[in-house]
Amino acid sequence: MKEARLALAAAGRGAWPGLDLDDDFFLRHLERHLAAAPDPEAALARVRADDFYLACACAAGSPGAVEQLERRFGGVIDAVAARFAPSKDGRAELRQMLRERLFAARPGAEPRIASYSGRGFLENWLRVAAVRAFVNAAESERREIQAEGDALEAVADGRDVELDFLKAHYRDAFRAAFSRAIARLEPAERLVLRLSVLDGLTCDEVAAALGVHRATAARRTAQARQRLSDATREELSSALRVGDAELDSILRIVESNLDLSLSRLLARDE
User: Fold this and answer.
1) What is the pTM (predicted TM-score) of this model?
2) Closest CA to 119 of 7, 36, 178, 175
């Protein structure tokens, strides 16, 4: 409904009264993002008015918008930059590069800040954007001058610096979310996972242990795994407060090489 969209614009304007942003631009920008969502009205309810309005003002080139964003989130960007550049001048170069990457647009294109959907905290979106930008800068420098350094050595060794950073940043949150998700399972669900994962039983052996048909054992195992996956996602989403796209990326990253096994947690539960 248009009223809800106008209310979102009003809430954003209230959060940033000093920014001059045309309502029509804001609504068009909002509609483009909602149109890309599977359920536009549900997506609308999740948009953070203050963050989205500020990002939209930056995309529109509203006077003072970029300065406001950097004033609010400069500490987040500085913390990431410090991981890639030991010197003050190096960090300043990274911040300037990120500024150009996010807020400068090529002819006929929108600036990258326009891709922020408002679903999830702008702080987290900027952190991920900064990591990606700084990794690209480090890799480009390596190709040009073959300089050595911690981050560049990791690239030279064939490691993914962005993956390493995000994995380290979110590993503890994932572990905690995964543990809480297991605790949410019913005893019968933990039992079937213990049999299939911890004890390594085949589907036929699980069926025999439970005294059920093979198809029933397979269905219960699949349902327990799905419940665990869904619960982990819910717990991690609640803890990190990021949007769906960011959450999917984080889950793929930390699950790929996580030093935490379902077997270990189930063994503790015995």
Assistant:
1) 0.56
2) 36
